[in-house]
Amino acid sequence: MDDWWDFDISSDSTTLFMSTLTSLQAAPYAQSSLNVASTDGKSSKQLLLSQNLEITNIRVINSSSLMFVSFAQSGTEEQGKDMGWWKINTDGTGLTQLNRQPNEGGAGPGVWGPFNPYSQTSWSNFSRDGSLYTDGPFYGSLSGGALTSYASYGVTLVGWTTM
Length: 163
Description:
Elements: E1 4-9, E2 15-23, E3 30-38, E4 44-50, E5 53-62, E6 65-72, E7 84-89, E8 96-99, E9 132-135, E10 138-141, E11 148-149
Antiparallel strand pairs: 1-2, 2-3, 3-4, 5-6, 6-7, 7-8, 9-10, 10-11
């Protein structure tokens, strides 16, 4: 496995959120971290450090919460348990698993994320009222639970709107 990273920025452009997945030479073979830094470079801190989660993608939901995708480390006992969509508060508290397995709700491996590949604006991945997220042809509740299908495979959501 190669090292992997992703980032997103707060809607007011003052805060940078970063995820890093680092390969290790011995068990547990990988380590993930979520970090936050001010865009002026004056402050930074680690929100999460995990040897169970393999964090590959991160997005800002709103000013107080983030969402990320974790795949499980191959060959570990934790493999199925830590896989899925996760939510965490921007201060590092409230780590919550929203959807455990990629097959629950109909999504399959390879369909999961990453998030909208064309935009990082919050409405590209999250409903305007902050209650739903998208995963390709599926959507899910930010309160957790199975994904719901709304279209066939190969469809990519462009974004959410209001009427």
